[in-house]
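User: What would this chain look like folded?
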Amino acid sequence: MFAVEEQWPRPTILIVDDAIENIKLISHALYGMADLLFATNGPDALRIADSSRPDLVILDIEMPGMDGYEVCNALKANPYTSECAVIFITAHEGTSYETQSLAAGGIDFLTKPINVPICRLRVQNQLTLKRQKDELAQTRRDLADLVHHLPSFVAFWGADTVNRYCNDQLGHWFGISAARMLGMSLDSVLNEETMAQLRPHWVGAMEGRTISVEVTLFPSSARRRIAQTTLVPNWQMGVVAGVLMVLTDITDRITAERALWEEKERMRITLNSIGDAVIATDQQGLVTFMNPIAEEMTGWYSSDAIGKPIDNVMELRDANNGHVLRNPIYLALKEERIVGMALNCNLVALSGQQSAVEDSAAPIRNQSGEISGAIIVFRDASEARAMAIKMSYLASHDPLTGLPNRLLLQDRISHGLQVARWSQTHVAMLLLDLDYFKFVNDSIGYTAGDDLLRQVAHRLENELSATGTIGRLGGDEFVVLLPELRSITEADEVATSLLAAMAEPFELDGNRFDLSISVGISLFPDDSSDEETLMRHADVAMHRAKQDGRNRYRFFSTELEDLVLSRHLLERHLREALQENRFEVFYQSKVNAREGRVIGAEALVRMYSTEGELLSPGRFIPLAEETGLIVPLGKMVLEIACRQAASWHEQGHALKMSVNIAAAQFAAGNFPEVVAEVLDHTGLNPDMLELEITEGTLMSEADAARETLIELKALGVHVSLDDFGTGYSSLAYLKRFPLDTLKIDQSFVRDMLNDKSDMAIIQTIIALGQTLGMELVAEGVEQREQAEILASMGCHIMQGYLYDKPKPASDWSFIEPTGVARSISGN
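Assistant: Here's the prediction, encoded as structure tokens.
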């Protein structure tokens, strides 16, 4: 059994009897039912009862000195014990005793000797009745307390409209306390104006209907209040005996509701009258309101749009690319903030017509501060945007030619210099001035001269690439800005093309005009450090071009000009060398230091000048890459090297041939086909060809590079990663790319004996190659100690001046090169 917590305190029973044996017997009979107190005479019983206030007194009638009836009378006379229930007990039989006991105020009667079960039942019944009586009294007190503290006025009026009850103890409602209101008629409490409103409803209540209605109390006075009035008929024996009236003050609520309605009405009129479109949504972005302008712009009727997603009703697209845009409503709801207008935003109406719009969205919060929806305000911005574009264009462009003016040029120059500082590139400014244009202008008139200037501007624009900017400073002066130049020679090429373009005759009204330009070139950061210096130096160079005979260009720096001329000369020699076959391939041996034998050769191209001077690759390879000549040159070297390897193989010397592949060669879409074609022409076994590719070549377009490597591996050739550790050095591509060999760059080998960092890097590369099962080659080995340490680490294939220098095939004798005479032991 579970113990149930008692809601009421344990009852107390006082047993009064002059015989101790009877007290013991009764105590035994009532054991466990209550807390028991005892007295053997009347005075003691009254004293104990006054201090402990028992719930029940079991009282013997016959006691010496003060009998039970006297004790009972005394208990009832004491206000503290008057509620005590009394059960009389006597040894006498007869109804007279029982009648007298009940008349004296007892509630029950027991006879001696005590029948224990009967005694327990009667006592338990009385205790239960006492507890129920106490509970009922407490409930009445609670109910009275509740009613008295209600914020409402509660009163009962008889059928004669006379007050029988009121909870307004202090008279807050009508200035009449509850005590004074008793017996007053309803019309004496309420004035005539209020009674006029209430009277018909009172009649309805008396007819048996429960009525709830708003009544204005004292409408013409300062005490005016609005009450929600409820009239409940009270039925007694099938007849309405009165009416319970409940008044609740709703003045503040009604005032707030009316103010809210007026505010909403003002807002509705405002939203329907303003020139902007307005759409409101709920928390999910479903439309809840549209004003007439929004209906007009979207093509949706409000009745059809309500409940639809905002994206359906207000479809937004990017004005530049037509991509669908997310409505700002969703961002306002998600981030709980005001979202500004989207740039270049078009609204697509239901008809499909598009119009430029400006919009802003904001979340709506309820009284608790929680997001309950959002609202978006937008307007047609087509005219404003067109006007802004036009004004911006006019402010930044030359009205005669439509080219950028000085203001826009300054902005472009400033931006170009910032990018150049960050990307470590060059910016070139070309200042162009028409030669003898003043004489032409004076001879044909200013109107025709303006037409000629427009033709000049158009021709210059057509000649310039999309990356450059051409602008007009005024008169016959133009500026060309070339940002992000990787090489200063690009400025030379542009100047040359502009001079050529201007050499073509102009035609105006059937007349031919021959014009030329003088161009001054300034370079950032080579000869200028800021915008002002760049412009001033270009102007100086332009005047020098005019002094030197016009129709030409000049660099501000003579050193740069000499460099450009030298580059021109070298490029011409490079092209002639390709045509006249003035290239020769040298070969440097690859040695297996552990076995002491030559196992391969690396092909290295050399070029001869017209005077027969041998030029180093560092002088012509970068130019070949810059001009794109590296692709035909690389194919030529590949074919020569493969043919030589095949020839050696026929002579009994099976050496693997390594050929360096430039990035431009590798990136060409047909490179695997080129390799296959060369192998086919030369008859070289693919297993005898190794292609050396740098890290940068692989990582520029990693996915395409991987596909190319897979195709090359399918041909059967080997692939070596050249200069490993100097580029990206990402371990990811070692796993992704099908590579056979890692070449340790000579920059690490050169200082490995003196630099612990280089030694550690070499150890790491060798360990990595061994783990991946790749062949290792160290280049730039010049000292025997380097070779011994490399071999001890596990790298046995080496090349460098310790063994051999690059030399023509005719000088190869296949005698062991210097340093291979004896093997180097290693792990």
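The longest strand covers residues 225-236. If you want, I can go into more detail on any region.
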